[in-house]
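Re: your question about Flagellar transcriptional regulator FlhC

S., sorry for the slow reply, the queue was backed up all week. Below is exactly what I fed in.
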Amino acid sequence: MISVAELHAYNTATALVRRKLRLSLVTSLTGVSQRTLRGIWREIHGEGAPNGKLPEFAQSLITSRQIAASAAAFVSVYLQQYGPVKGAINAEHLMGAVDLSARFGNEVNIATAFYCLRDLKAGFLMFPKCCQCGARYLYDSSGGRHLDRCPFCSHAPLKR
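Result:
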C-alpha cells in the first residue's frame, strides 16, 4: 500500500512534470525515481522526456535582459512569500512562487526559477538593490552576461 507521504511526492512530481521541469531535478525535489517519472512524462506529454546535460548555473539559462528581469521579479516574489531558501528548495514553494509571479504577468521558466534560487542560496548570485531605480536584481560578480547590471534600467554597479 502507498503511504500518504509517497502519494504527496507523486502528486508533487506530476505537477512538476506538467511544467516540464527536467526529471533529474524532479527526482531531487521529490525523491520519485526517474524511471517512474519517465512514464509520467510520456503519459502527460505524449513523448519521451528530454535528455542531455543540465546547466551548471542559472547564468546559462539567462540569455537576455528580459529573462534576467523576469528571474529577478520571480526571486522577489519568492522571497516575499517564503523568505530565504533554508536547506533544500521546497517544490511547493517553487511552484507557488512561479504561479504567483505569473498572476502578476511575469512568466518565468521553472528551471530558471529553480537554478536562480539554488545559485542565490549558494552565493553564486547576489540580489542587490539598484542604486539608480531601486529595483532588486540578480547580479553575478564574475561579470556574467545579462547579470552584470540592473536589467530594468541598465545601471551597472560600482566596482570596488
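DSSP finds six helices and no strands in the chain. The chain has a mean pLDDT of 93.

Happy to talk it through on Thursday.
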